[in-house]
Amino acid sequence: MIKQYTDIFNNSGPVPVTEIPVLHYQQFCSLVTGLLKDETRHCMAYYATGTSENIQLICCIGDDSGKKISLVSHLLPRHVRSLESLTPGCPQLHIFEREIHERTGISFIGHPWLKPVRFSHDRYDRTRAMNDYPFYEIEGEELHEVGVGPVHAGIIEPGHFRFICNGEKVLHLEIHLGYQHRGIEKLFRGKRNGLEMSLASESIAGDTSVGHALAHSQLAESLAGIEIPESIQIERCIALELERIAVHIGDTAALCGDVAYQLGQVVCEALRTTVINTTQLWCGNRFGKGLVRPGGTNYPLTDKVAEAILKVLDDSGKRYQEITDRIYSLPSLLGRFEDIGTVTRNQAMSAGAVGMAARSCGIERDTRASHPFQYYRKYAIKPVIYLTGDVLSRGLLRAAEVRASVSIIKDLISVWSNVSRDCHRPVYNLPLKSDSFALSVVEGWRGEILHSALTGTGGILEHYYIKDPSLHNWMALALAVRNQEISDFPVCNKSFNLSYCGNDL
Amino acid sequence: MAGILLILLAAVFFPGIILRTRSVVSGRKGPGIFQPVKDLFVLFRKGSVFSSTTGIIFRIAPAVSLASVLCAALVLPFGNAGSLISFEGDFIYFSYMIALGKFFAIIGALDTGSSFEGMGANREAFFSMLVEPAFFILMATFAMFTGYTSFSEIFGSFLITDNAHLVIFTVMGIWLFIQTALVETSRVPVDDPKTHLELTMIHEVMILDNSGFDKALIHIVTYLKSAIYGSLIFNVLVPSGMVLWMQLILFIIVQVLFAIVIGLTESFRARNKMNKNPKFILAISAVAWMAFVVALILTHKFIG
User: Fold this and answer.
1) Which domains does chain A have, with CATH numbers?
2) Using the beta-carbon criterion (under 8 Å), do B266 and A336 form an inter-chain contact?
């Protein structure tokens, strides 16, 4: 019997492309459906790569409990134009099949919603344009449509939201993104200059610079087969947690701002500034750009910076605790957050939600614990879980994660002060292993970030695949606002705070 | 005459004081008191842009709103100086002059054909309808209590009647006027004048298409309304027999305190969920109704 799938660990080194089992589509379907039936597994990535003759579909299924990632693949000749869709059985695959359809033109028969994801420049069907997106429509006397965006009143990214409402109640929301598409995956293909790639990775989603830069650096190191010193691993974890703290505090401010609670907004905005300023003290950039690089670091943590971090976390951590205690006990705010935008566990499960969106409705999905990377392999994390799945639970989750991250950083700094510090400089010309596949998973503040690459002869990057957690979670937002009041949409949207450019790439 | 002049004067300071209160409370330096008025001058110097889908209604709506609010202010008295015009039942005239302005703002918003503005107009019409009984029941209570039906006479004889229960009505009247003002001038917790989120707006979303000169007129209407409600509170609170300079000082104090109260409310609470607004507004009417029943009993018109 041939091996049906390969199990790999996150960041465990390159897998020769030939070792990924290639199955018949029937087998592929039944295997993927079978694996995803288990609630502890979810699809981390499913994408198409290929040559001029063949297209290879690669599916990476992560096991939330077993630390393993299963690779399954299917090879089909270019002339095959249609396949049976897996979405009816596994709804979480809907976005991946849409993406594959958009890029390769393969039709998935039976897919209920085979619409463009982002109108990429290199899409297969050039006849379709952004302005004739096939919106879902409902006929009815009482119903009306409200279109919001792509240009918004605030300083948010472009994206179009089409509501079908009955009076103030939202029956359906369709989210149409793609306005931010820059073709960032293409920037990696065929590149040899590591600095160029690092810079590109930091800009995949501006609010997750550290997360994406770490995912990229990990991938490069994994393809090169090198392991970086422990002290740098710890520093990377500290940077990742600092980013988490800063963004969570900023989101709390934005949540308060949306419901016109001035006190919470201004206090949290001020606290966020103290945290990002500490990141700036460390690496010169408030968003951690330049901090994480493959093979080493330009900004090794110093005792002075470590002390500054501890001081800020002590002070701002305590204040954040005080203000969140107040925010989440004030009746006028609870009235705005409680039972608003609820996503049930089942909905999140079938949408394949990851990260905060999943943890706020009882799904224990935290890749720091399930697929540990960097120093988390030695430092066990206990994921923070809330059960109700409403705006309040996402708010409380942020507060709890900030508390958790503060204690993680404190622990990591005390470990760091006792390890030997190898000061490696970044290596921008890492020799990548040829004909290999590698993937790297990082738990950014929003959730699971996955970068995956395939190299050709001579270690040239032939395919680079990026998945921001937003790709999974936008669907959860669309489900959350159903039967809610349209005036509650902004606060629901803010509670997820998904990335537009992370989705659009 | 003094009444309307003082209202105009108060309207100049009012928005600035609210803004200042919010800034100070949130630990910011904030803009100066006159910033909103300076912004008006900027807007006055700009031209207006009209969408091609709008018609004559959209163009005249801001001017009609301003005119109607100014007309409404004419009947408000100031101490024993009385009001510029006064006749029996002028509080009904006052209420419907304000409603007329609002009506034009609503049809002006509908005229744009935008789904946002339609939503805002819908909300504004609904909430205005709900807040109307509160004002009328309160004024009816005052009318019954004093035996007069015009603002000047009601407030003129307000404290002359030697009735200890009057203090209850004063407190209730002030509370009701503050709450009504929050609804009428689109402040937190009913509306959020600072938000940028079109989907949650009530008043602000109706004026999305207005620009330049027209936008300035609409802002003036809001400022005037705040000052008008401040003036009503002053009239309920301060006896008309007082000497003029004392009344002037008290007028300023009342207006400033009113603005500070609004600023503080906006700093320390969140706004209502949209479907809580009707309940919030109906509660105002309910309190007015209670005042009315109590007045009936006290004046022995209800039982024996």
Assistant:
1) 6-92 (no CATH), 184-504 (1.10.645.10)
2) no
User: What's the gap in Å between the CA of A163 and the closest CA on chain B?
Assistant: 11
Nearest CB neighbour to B26, from listed A262, A335, A490: A262
Cβ-based contacts of A336 with chain B (< 8 Å): 270-271, 273
User: Which residues touch A497 (CB under 8 Å, ≥6 apart)?
Assistant: A247, A251, A254, A446
- Model ipTM value: 0.85
Over residues A293-343, the pLDDT tens digits come to 998 888 988 889 999 999 999 999 999 999 999 999 999 899 899 999 999
Percent residues over pLDDT 90 in chain A: 41
- Test A333 with B27 for CB contact under 8 angstroms: no
Across the interface, whether the CB atoms of B26 and A144 are under 8 A apart is answered: no
The helix (H) or strand (E) run that includes residue A322 is helix A303-327
Chain A residues with CB under 8 Å of B267 CB are 262-263
Report CA torsion sign: A342, A345, A348, A354: positive
pTM for the structure as a whole: 0.90
> A444 near A475, Cβ under 8 Å?
no
Per-residue DSSP letters for B122-166?
Answer: HHHHHHHHHHHHHHHHHHHHHHHHHS--SHHHHHHTTTTS--TTH
Q: Which of B110, B114, B269, B274 has the most A C-beta neighbours within 10 Å, making it the best mutation to test the interface with A?
A: B269
CB contact under 8 A, B200 and A256: no
Structure tokens at A496: 């997820």
Minimum Cα–Cα distance from A488: chain B residue: B200
Write the pLDDT tens digit of every residue in A351-376.
Answer: 989 999 999 999 989 989 888 888 88
Instruction: Pick B197's closest partner by Cβ from A145, A147, A258.
Output: A258
Q: How far apart are CA A493 and CA A323, in angstroms?
A: 22
Confirm or reject contact between B90 and chain A (CB < 8 A). Answer: no
Average pLDDT across chain A, whole number: 89
- State the burial class of residue A122 (Cβ atoms within 10 Å of its Cβ: 0-12, 13-18, 19+): exposed
CA A316/CA A185 separation, integer angstroms: 37
pLDDT digits (tens, 9 = 90+) for A170-182: 999 999 888 888 8
Per-residue pLDDT tens digits for B148-202 = 889 888 888 876 655 666 777 788 889 999 999 999 888 888 888 888 888 888 8
The answer to whether A260 contacts B268, with C-beta atoms less than 8 Å apart, is no
First-to-final CA distance of chain A: 40
User: Beta strand A68-77 with A82-84: parallel, antiparallel or unpaired?
Assistant: unpaired
The verdict on a CB contact (< 8 Å) between A485 and B275 is yes
Q: How far is residue A309 from each of residues A251, A274, A324, A407, A420, measured CA to CA in Å? A: 20, 10, 21, 12, 20
Is B274 in Cβ contact with A145 (below 8 Å)?
A: no
